[in-house]
Amino acid sequence: MYINALLQTAAAPEGSLLMTFLPFVLIFVIFYFFIIRPQNKKQKDTERMISALKKGDKVVTIGGIHGVVSSTKEQTVIVKVDDDTKIEFSRSAVASVVTDKPVKEEKADKKLKTKPAVEEKTTENTESSSEKEETK
């Protein structure tokens, strides 16, 4: 009798089979959209950037070396680091191509203009506190 009760609870209807696999399917979909798909996009963008390298591009390597591409080969690029220094790197060692954007400089200038105003307030506070100390 005890065995019959176990067999009845072990046999589940098909509806619960769907409910069993539904969380796994949802987890896979979440992983696909939040991890796998963005990673594939980034990899394709990097491959496009590496294949589009040309003479005169400013680059940064994965080791942090900044320079200008002086020539390209099939598998490597030669980066001019200084006036007399050229280093040959594998194309996959290029981390990014640097582009000069003046828009960021304007934003940095605006931030610098706001910082002195904050400093003036702090100097006024220190002056008033020093005046208070003198009056004591």
Can you describe what's shown?
This protein is α+β, with helices and mostly antiparallel strands and 136 residues long. It folds into three domains: 1-52; 54-99, SH3 type barrels; 100-136. Helix content is 60%, strand content 19%. It has helices at 2-10, 14-51, 102-135, and strands at residues 58-61, 66-72, 76-80, 86-90, 94-98. A five-stranded antiparallel beta sheet has the order 4-3-2-1-5, with helices on one face. It is elongated, with a radius of gyration of 31 Å. The relative contact order is 0.07.
List strands and helices in order, with pairings.
Blueprint: H1 2-10, H2 14-51, E1 58-61, E2 66-72, E3 76-80, E4 86-90, E5 94-98, H3 102-135
Antiparallel strand pairs: 1-2, 1-5, 2-3, 3-4
Distance between the termini: 95 Å
Strand order of the largest sheet: 4-3-2-1-5
Low-confidence stretches: none
Secondary structure tally: strands: 5
Rg, rounded, reads: 31 Å
The largest sheet, given as strand count, sense and whether it forms a barrel, is: 5 strands, antiparallel
Helix proportion: 55-70%
The computed structural class is alpha+beta
Global mean pLDDT: 79
